[in-house]
Amino acid sequence: MKIKGIKHVFFDLDHTLWDFDKNSALAFKKIFELHNVDVDLKTFAEVYEPINLNYWKLYREEQVDKTSLRYGRLKDTFDSLDYDVSDALINQLSEDYITYLTTFNHLFEGTIDVLEYLKLHYDLHIITNGFEEAQLKKMNASKITSYFKTITNSEMAGVKKPNPIIFNLALKVANAKPEESIMIGDNYEADILGAINVGLDVLYFNYHNEEPDEDIKLIDALIDVKKYL
């Protein structure tokens, strides 16, 4: 069931192409070893991941800023684990996490295959809520930057997905029309509903195993993009 009339493919980055959870776990392992933080990594991840997702939701909704997100997600996790850690160390861990996170380069299975396939037929773009300095480092480290004509991030736009402003900016930068464009992402609210709201077609990468509306096109693996494009 190929989608007709598409010229531009917009991707989210984290949790869609770039394997955030795997790279994040490696970064925490590194910084905990550096600073002698004695917590079980598996237990930490189980507590941290929902807290982190909630902070990103607050960030999208302009309820916290970048500094508060980076500090708060660690503070709340350590508090939940009843692990005593100073504010100074939390701030240092926060900085080191960003430094080391961008040195790991694991992509989801099929990413390069799909990008190689798509680049022959479409212009490819990134729309991300991630921080500008980190996102480009991630893309460079994983050697995918060259596949994309444009990269639009929330710091450039002044707003985050699902705000229509960032999608409209991305379309303008890409010289793309909504009816010729499709968005592929893992976050139902930010990527899928946000894109639909400005007239883009969508493919929902169902990384989180949610149950969206029946009329939303789902892919369970990136390679499934080839069924539609």
From TrEMBL:
Which top-rank group of organisms is this from? Answer: Bacteria
Keyword flag Hydrolase:
yes
Q: Which UniProt keywords apply?
A: Hydrolase
Asked if the keyword Hydrolase belongs to this entry, the reply reads yes
Q: Where is the signal peptide?
A: none
Pfam families on file: Hydrolase (PF00702)
Q: Which GO terms describe its molecular function?
A: 5'-nucleotidase activity
The UniProt entry, under InterPro entries, shows: HAD-like_sf (IPR036412), HAD-SF_hydro_IA (IPR006439), HAD-SF_hydro_IA_YjjG/PynA (IPR011951), HAD_sf (IPR023214), PGP-like_dom2 (IPR023198), Pyrimidine_5'-ntase_YjjG (IPR052550)
Q: Which PANTHER family match?
A: PTHR47478, PYRIMIDINE 5'-NUCLEOTIDASE YJJG (PTHR47478:SF1)
Q: What name has this protein been given in UniProt?
A: Putative hydrolase of the HAD superfamily
